[in-house]
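Thread: quick sanity check before group meeting

JM: Hey all, I'm pulling together slides for Thursday and realized we never actually wrote out the predicted structure for the chain we discussed last week. Dropping the sequence here so it's in one place. If anyone has concerns about the input, flag it before I start.
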Amino acid sequence: MNPHAATSGGVADPAADASAERRCGNCGAALQGLHCHACGQPARSLVRHFRSVVGDFVDTVFNVDGRLLRTLGPLLLRPGFLSLEYLAGRRVRYVSPVRLFVFISLLAFLAGRLNIEPEVAGTAVDPPAATADFSQAASVDAVLAQRERALREFDARRFALDAPGVAVGLAGARAAIEQAAQARIDALRTAGGADTAAANDANGVATAAPVAGRHRDTPLEIRLGQGVWHSRDNPLQLAWLPEAANAQLNLWLQRGVDNLLELRGDRSARQRLGEYVLELLPQTLFVLLPVFALLLKLAYAFRRRLYMEHLIVALHSHAFLSLAVLLLALLGLLHAALAPGFARDGTSALSIALAAWMPLYLLLMQKRVYREGWGSTLLKYALLGTAYTALIGAGVVVTLLIGLVAM
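JM (edit): ok, ran it. Output follows.
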């Protein structure tokens, strides 16, 4: 029988005899599955019903099928289970570690962005105007008391600090309260002279001149050698860099200084910086993930495990953290949408429980995967946590610097 008799223009005819031997359209080899074993070409082409193509696309990109449901439960509730299953060779029933981490981390950052945007816009974390407006305070004591009330109210309303990028917006909002209070104290000190200075001293407020860089019109000075850095008059010159690279470095430095000055007086600029940081944080985590795997390799150097085994553990641990952050962000959105009451208190309790589960999960995962005693596990857990926290801090600083230059 002609193997191509049931085709029309190279497209399989659904009405063709099902008993006919299926052959690869590329090399003619008999097909035994969804791909040709001889040349690797898929048995199914794109020339078919559109809903089938869309289904394949979703399955390929997001892996949304039974494996996802079988993966998310253990990922959240069974520390180390997925890593042990993967290392034991039972892989096909679960979503691959790389795809799992990429998919959940992207969802987490999107949810974190939704969580931070209303706060940056002033609808969730900004204190009421009457609380944050210090212009009517007639004394330093009144400013300090009003500032404390504003900060207490702010701290009571803040939520989901662990969501990606949320801490950036919260820090900016809290700093705005403190800066507004300090600006009023400075004005009272200037107007009141010695009496105001004495009141400041009594309340623990510095009476020295305002710190450079606090106000928008105060120049930001960077000491360089014997003088102050200037992009043209006294630029930064590194001998081991070519002239063009030094010129670009000074251009970036000038842009960062200009943006830093703008941040102090422009709320929208702080919002733009937060958006840049949110955009760069996923890349930062992707860079730090293999570094964390290297730290695991060093911590368990005598276990004779391959680096890729540690990378699997790192992928699953980061996927869990991303899932926890995603749930915290969703709980934060739900908390903001609910009216005060039992349901809203329940979201707060769930968030606290989830935040407490995160470090405990990582400890149990490390214990179950590497199978060492509790003393050794706790010591290595503390060392790994300290080292990785320092790396994350450095990564956030670098991300902020890149955001200052890029915004």
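AS: nice. Residues 1-19, 118-131, 158-169, 206-219 have pLDDT under 50 and may be disordered. The CA atoms of residues 160 and 332 lie 6 Å apart.
JM: adding both to the slides.
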